[in-house]
Amino acid sequence: MIIVMAVALAAVLAGHRLLPELGGLTPVLESLLPWLGAAVPLLVIGALLTRSWRTVAAALLPALVWGVMFGPALLRTAPGGQSDLSVATLNVGVTNADSGRAVRALAGGRDLFAAQELTPGGPAAEELGRHFPHRVQVSTIGLWSRFPIIEHRAVDIGLEWTRALRAVVKTPGGNVTVYVMHLASARPGETAQRDSTLTHARRLIDADKSENLLLLGDLNTATTDRKLSGLVPPLSDAHLEAGTGFGFTWPASFPVTRPDHILYRGLTATGADVEPAAGSDHRAAVASLRL
């Protein structure tokens, strides 16, 4: 039995992208994929109790697969070096009475700050206005900048209300096109709308010829979800390139997955991390980048 379970676990880890949708359960499985490694110690202990080296060897197979898949994330160190932009993105939480305090703690030293689930004129927007001279806010999303925003407009991601914008920021190193997006939610068996907004996002990125481009926001898609491959590549993921660990951002009390992302092209990530945000059910994704 242990051998069968070990082989099955290794197969799921290595071949999860080959699994069918399974009634919408596969996206949940992929979102929690790194946590499947928690079963490995149990399998190894059970195998040792059998005193069968064959069983122990089988139990170590998923450990090997997990190590190959996720070991680099645990061993990776930030490349460091000069950076030109410090950016953050946070789903502040529409019911978060402490959203002002949350963004205040994160805004210091940032050049760009993307926020989702804003309330018009709410504490988060008001507080960010004290820290940044330039801003654009559309519905429940916004971008605050230390540098001039020379263009901005709402963009369509296939929802009935606006949850995405495009802005061009004039930085000392050159113009940077910034998208802020809050894609549709994904729940077990209910991912069609999320998948549609991902498709819209990819079309926007493909059509945009900007050399330097950032995509910031709550994409409601985990790093390990196969659907994110529609955006990464062609974009790079700041945390995968320059962060340490898994960078989980949700839920804030005990993060188990990463729906919040800093994606880019034409830049180089020099560091990436996750920071707490008072009152929000998300943690903030932050990164430094070089033009």
From TrEMBL:
Keyword Membrane: yes
Molecular function (Gene Ontology), one example: catalytic activity
Transmembrane region(s): 33-49, 56-75
InterPro entries to which the protein is assigned, alphabetical: Endo/exonu/phosph_ase_sf (IPR036691), Endo/exonuclease/phosphatase (IPR005135)
Domain Endonuclease/exonuclease/phosphatase: 88-282
Top-rank taxon, per record: Bacteria
Keywords: Membrane, Transmembrane, Transmembrane helix
Presence of keyword Metal-binding: no
The name this protein goes by in its record: Vancomycin resistance protein VanJ
Organism: Planomonospora venezuelensis
